[in-house]
Each structure stands twice: as structure tokens, then as C-alpha cells.
Amino acid sequence: MQDMVYKIKADFLKVLGHPVRLKLIEELKTGEKSVGDLVGKFKIGQSSTSRHLLALRHAGILTSRQEKTTVYYDIADHDIFNVLRPIAVMLRKKFKASEKMLKTLGKE
User: How confident is the model at residue 36 (pLDDT cuts 50, 70, 90)?
Assistant: First the structure.
């Protein structure tokens, strides 16, 4: 049973492990957007964008609705940013430490 829990968590994190998907999530932070809007914003092909959006929807991160021929996506639960925010904080700390180290290299 515990192994299944780890598998579910790993699969969820795997969905978040693509730069395009993270861009899409951040873009949708401000509200619902159509697939066409997202394609235009990021200059990524429609089929590729749709695949990433579908993966995020299957993971429960996004919701979608269709209005005539247009599909709109939105964040299903804004708590996803409670997952992403600490990662950004950790990366800032990491890069700050690297920056300090690089500055010391220039002093030799």
C-alpha cells in the first residue's frame, strides 16, 4: 500500500517535471485561457500544447471546458502553487549560494 502512495506521488511530480507544463500553469495562474491563447503566447504547436494541457488535466491540476470549438483551461486547485512556491524558494537559495561561490573564485 505504501509503495502505491509513493508511485502516485512520483507520477504527479513527473507531470510537473516539464518546462512547458510549468509555463502553462504559471500562465493560467491569472485565470482561464483558451488553447489558442496559450499557443499564441508560447509559440508552441497546437498539438504539443494540447498534449501538455491534457497531461495536466489528467493529473487533476487543470480543468477544461469547451465552448463551441474552443477549449478553455484553468487551474483546478490553486493549492498547486503551495507545491511550486517552495521549489522556487529552494532554487533561489541554491543559486544565491552558487553566486557567492563564483564570486570567491574571481578573487584568487
Answer: very high
